[in-house]
Amino acid sequence: MTAPDPAGFHPAWLPPEAFRAIGSRRVLVFGDGLLAETVHDEVARACARFGGRVRRGAENEPHDLVLALTTVEVLPGVAGEVRPDSATGAEGYLLARRDGVTVVLADDPAGLLYGLFHVVRLGESAFTGERPAEHHRPATRRRMLDHWDNVDVHPVMGQVERGYAGGSIFWHDGAPRGDLARVRAYGRLLAACGINAVAVNNVNVHATEARLLTDRLSDVAAIADVLRPYGIRVHLSVNFASPVALGGLPTADPLDEEVRKWWAGVTERVYDTIPDFGGYVVKADSEGQPGPFAYGRDHADGANLLAEALEPFGGVVHWRAFVYNHRQDWRDRATDRARAAYDHFAPLDGRFRDNVILQVKHGPIDFQVREPVSPVIAAMPATRLAVELQVTQEYTGQQRHVCYLAPMWREVLGFRPWGPDGDAVADVIDGGDLVGVSNVGDDPYWTGHPLAQANLYAFGRLAWAPRSDPAAILDEWIDLTFVPTASGDTEPAATGEIERLRRTLHAIMDDSWRTYERYTAPLGVGFMVRPGHHYGPDVDGYEYTPWGTYHFADRDGVGVDRTRATGTGFTGQYPPPWSEVYESLDRCPDELLLFFHHVPYGHVLHSGSTVIQHVYDTHFAGAEQVEQARRRWVEAAGLFDPSLHARVKELLDEQVRCAEEWRDQINAYFFRKSGVPDVRGRRIP
Amino acid sequence: MTAPDPAGFHPAWLPPEAFRAIGSRRVLVFGDGLLAETVHDEVARACARFGGRVRRGAENEPHDLVLALTTVEVLPGVAGEVRPDSATGAEGYLLARRDGVTVVLADDPAGLLYGLFHVVRLGESAFTGERPAEHHRPATRRRMLDHWDNVDVHPVMGQVERGYAGGSIFWHDGAPRGDLARVRAYGRLLAACGINAVAVNNVNVHATEARLLTDRLSDVAAIADVLRPYGIRVHLSVNFASPVALGGLPTADPLDEEVRKWWAGVTERVYDTIPDFGGYVVKADSEGQPGPFAYGRDHADGANLLAEALEPFGGVVHWRAFVYNHRQDWRDRATDRARAAYDHFAPLDGRFRDNVILQVKHGPIDFQVREPVSPVIAAMPATRLAVELQVTQEYTGQQRHVCYLAPMWREVLGFRPWGPDGDAVADVIDGGDLVGVSNVGDDPYWTGHPLAQANLYAFGRLAWAPRSDPAAILDEWIDLTFVPTASGDTEPAATGEIERLRRTLHAIMDDSWRTYERYTAPLGVGFMVRPGHHYGPDVDGYEYTPWGTYHFADRDGVGVDRTRATGTGFTGQYPPPWSEVYESLDRCPDELLLFFHHVPYGHVLHSGSTVIQHVYDTHFAGAEQVEQARRRWVEAAGLFDPSLHARVKELLDEQVRCAEEWRDQINAYFFRKSGVPDVRGRRIP
Q1: CA distances (Å), B284 to each of B198, B267, B281, in order?
Q2: How far apart are CA B247 and CA B244, in angstroms?
């Protein structure tokens, strides 16, 4: 991995060296149109650097790689006998190698682009031996990043809400940044990991951001123009009260005829300006945002209003299910925030229009390091669902801690809400949407922590293929990002060096999510972070607040009773077998125990440890693992660009400090409360 | 009390009606100079309103009131036989009534002004019967308000740090406000309660504020010009690093010759511009402010540097003793913030120049609702000391809660650090300084909460006469503020109405400090406030932070062991008998128990209650008393100006809500931790 280049940003997983294999070959590109141009230009740039050559159209000359649209008549012999045995489908492609020629065929120009990046990932191995035809298709139709970027700097949240990588790549202090080169580079990186949709502003839509829909639409169009060549559509977060705020109407009532007309007219103008506009993203009646409740309407009324306006143009509404009472009285133990999304939305199943996509956070609370999968995902068979993941590390170390999130996401996607014989979450969103909250900013490394680039990459790759192995994705990312340049910018690295580099990164990253879990809130109980910024520990920080995130620790025990028998009844929102598994103190998985049950400190886990001893053990272990990660990193100094190495080292220092702070606060808190000493006699302050 | 007048601010304790008695009399004023002019103008304005008349000089005509400087030859008969039997001293005056003439005599024009306000306070009773000669002199030489006002709006602290009454009356968004009428009115109010010095900017001196010393000195001079007619000198908070930041020197080392010259030159220019400038206020080596430690020097070196520069002009340095480690490791139980001021300063006793005034917060921590008196006050016999009180209600309800602070201050001033036969704190500062952090802002009522005006008034009156009775001061304040206008602007109120009004305010205010104590942090343990803004409860908010303010509650007990026997040894900073009283679990006063001792929840107080039951009882009682105060206020609606009544009612609603929140959080916290039920079976959430 190199240092940021003179353009001011780091190449991430597309350093020039990643194109060496293609760039040193003879390449034919067949096909016309914007995305085929992109493919050609990518190849041409690589060839200019590494001595290969690229030709357009059906020239009959020696070649090593063919990238062709199936709609184009390709001369026999050019692609050998390679033919798709079925349609590749939108965005899909066929990859094969026969008789010394590597072939990528696609029905659709986007497929050609994704096929190109597949060849990039393969590197030299794309050009050796034979390769039987493989059909590749994305599992999901929309692989989308939501940017929580504000146009105006928000007085509390700043330029990017929950952003840990500097300013926004789109906006600066009320205006577009203007630096479209960076947006273009971003689009290229996204295409290379399979992302095809971006929402360009925060779901909390304040006054200035609201105007992107109308008089500032040209700012959005400028971004769309730059992302379009990489097959990425732009979406816009809109304010539900726009008819009042922007349109001067007396109401935003979704059943009001004038309101419907207003949205229809505004939406038509959006499509006049941006013909491939993706649609609207809406956070309504949530944490202070306006919504249909103000007019006595429900969320189906609200979502359908916008869907109706978008329908003629093929646009969609992403309607967020993150709706709960954020002014709860902490004294009220009957209200359970975990229940809120299901209680609000499950009764509406079947009432949403076809182009409404209900966007559901993966867990019932809010992107904690460990949550059960949201029961909403299993509750709405007649509704199109998107699952929302948080790539930005709000609750997982804020891009100051190494926390490779793909293993968590893979668990979510592989979870089977109806039990072992039923569908997985990945099946529910098959052909649908996976949405991630972006973790990039104007930081030179894009993501603050250089290793957090892997989360962005992995999000895209999992959205494309939700059953991928996180360790394999990490290998891909390592190979693209570090291997071409491990020992310098020009020569491939030595094999031994590459192996050491790979082992170092796997040792630091593979288990980093579980490590983070070990030193933070235990056993699924969640939160325990400092209110407001959400960084670092504060066990009681949210315990007596209106936010609905409690742990109920007392001198005898800890955890939230969400059973039907004696608690809030949240377990009843799951279908069997999980409704029974979570209900049962015996069967509930250890890692979610305190999410579902309030137990005495002496309760014995399946692991054989008591809850209190588990707290001590995991916190000592987690902090020690971070210390080990730092040692590994220090030992690997020679394998990385020095400035990148120094930056990660500095961040690991902070992670060690913070993990020890977590360890000591959590342990001290529970020791003071329980009075139970550590059986191993370690020091608890 | 009337509503704010058309000038935009409320008359507070100087409504026009308060001058009715004087204004309807025949008055002679003898004396020349600025302050005598002020006296004359005050009387003239009153007479214009109420039909009396005022004459200058020795005119021989019938008169009811004479205000005369003793330096002026007064015609025999004008003052009758009234003569001072000794010098009145600076700011002192003699008051008498003989043969139908009320006489005020003073050696010094300031005394004449204070005498005038004494007659204002007396009202009609100044003009009835005979009154033997009374000599009045302020106990303290300097009665000073420190404004923590920023010139620039601070991104976190705002325009006024710990200000709860809107913006600054001096500064707005980087510039002087320009509204000198308001500053003039402020000076008049201060003179009427005896204050004679004001520091016009925050002790945390940021970049813009630092420049008040040099290129923005004219901003300070403009304030000085307006306050001078009321006998008030201005002081300036300065940044210790000014020689570097403003002077371009390579160092601010107090022993560096160039640094000394720089301060001498700058100070000379200050006095060229403001000949009666009071001096500098310095917060050094504290909470991030620069200081002598950076150069390996101590606080005596630092303070003496500035004192030397000020000495030729009669100026003083207020050097704050609020120095402690605000980056303490919470795991370190040996470090005790309470010890810090003594540990830093006591060894320096005798090393400060004569014009250094060491400014000591009244308690060892930071203006908590209950603290012991700072041991520094008894530890530095060879140093001039100022005691610092906090009129702004940072930790006592932030001017949203009624909390009349005079009873707390009176306890501090009456405390005898050397035991019952020794001097009181009031004796230590006799002839010296009492300093308060101002509670005013650009709010129409000056202080946010209209009843918080009483704290400002009482501060001035206690600074003048530290042995005053807080209830008597409250009566004065009520009589000036409310009585003249209780039933309208023009006619004196009916006696019955006045009595009801007085009873209402005493019922709400007399015990309000103890009420506040009851529903907040118990038994002297302190803090338990929300970090940052310090409003509302958060029991563990500071428990695991670097700020040094801990309670160490665990399942068995609570409190900080500051004994010599087993704790931090802080008790040893007191002289006997307090070193023994505080050391002893048996003798330590209940209200300070948890400040000095860590005790089990079952520990029995002198009151006969256990600690845990005391916590429950006081919290239920405190919240109930606030509810009672609200009832009293509602019942008294007809006695007050409606808009003022409505504002106080709204604030009392918030106080009720907040007191219940405190009650429930504190009780729940300790119930969860101790497991001890309330013996009275009340609901603890």
Answers
A1: 19, 18, 10
A2: 5
Classify B467 as helix, strand or coil: coil
CB A603 within 8 A of CB A557: yes
Q: What is the pLDDT of residues B632-673, one digit of tens each?
A: 999 999 999 999 999 999 999 999 999 999 999 999 999 999
* Alpha carbon separation from B432 to B144, B385, B463, B626 (Å, rounded): 11, 7, 10, 37
Counts for chain B of helices (H) and strands (E), in that order: 20, 20
Backbone phi and psi for residue B573, each to the nearest 5 degrees, phi listed first = -80, -10
Segment B418-432 mean pLDDT:
97
Read off the pLDDT of residues A143-184 as tens digits, 9 standing for 90 and up.
999 999 999 999 999 999 999 999 999 999 999 998 899 999
Q: Compute the distance between CA of residue A69 and CA of residue A358 in angstroms, rounded to an integer.
A: 34
Asked if residue A270 lies in contact with residue A233, where contact means CB atoms within 8 angstroms, the answer is no
Q: How far apart are CA B666 and CA A555, in angstroms?
A: 15
Evaluate whether B636 touches B624 at the Cβ level (below 8 Å): no
> Among candidates B80, B69, B65, which has minimal Cα distance to B19?
B65
Cβ burial of B650 (10 Å; 0-12, 13-18, 19+) is exposed
What CA–CA distance (Å, rounded) separates A548 from A562?
13
A467-491 per-position pLDDT tens digit = 999 999 999 999 999 987 644 444 5
Mean pLDDT, all residues of chain A: 95
Q: Would an 8 Å CB–CB cutoff place B685 in contact with chain A?
A: yes
**What is the token pair recorded at A487?**
């020992």
Task: Name the DSSP class of B75.
Answer: P
Instruction: Give the C-alpha separation, A138 to A464, whole Å.
Output: 4
Strand A356-361 and strand B131-136: pairing? unpaired
- d(Cα B434, Cα B341) in Å, to the nearest integer? 18
From chain B, the residues in CB contact with A539 under 8 A are 540
Q: Provide the chain B residues 647-666 that lie in CB contact (below 8 A) with chain A.
A: 664-665
Nearest to A233 by CA among A167, A266, A281: A281
Q: Which of A544, A665, A673 sits opposite B555 (nearest CB)?
A: A673
Report CA-CA distances (Å) from B206 to B165, B167, B246, B279. Answer: 21, 17, 12, 18
Q: Does the pLDDT at position B30 exceed 70? A: yes
State the DSSP string of B531-566. Answer: TTT--SB-TTTTTTSTTS------SSEE-----TTT
- The answer, for B673 touching chain A at a CB cutoff of 8 Å, is yes
ipTM associated with this complex? 0.91
pLDDT at position B486, please?
Answer: 47
3-state secondary structure of A14: coil
How far CA A564 is from CA of A567, A569, A603, B239, B470, in Å, comes to 6, 4, 20, 63, 58
For residue A50, how far is the Cα from the chain centroid?
A: 34
Q: Which of A537, A555, A685 sits opposite B555 (nearest CB)?
A: A555
Longest Cα–Cα distance of chain A, Å, equals: 82
In contact, B556 and B548? CB cutoff 8 Å? no
Between the CA of residue A285 and those of A199, A206, B278, what are the distances in Å? 20, 14, 57
Three-class SS of residue A415? Answer: coil
Strand order in the sheet with A53-56: A53-56, A26-30, A65-69, A101-106, A93-98, A131-136
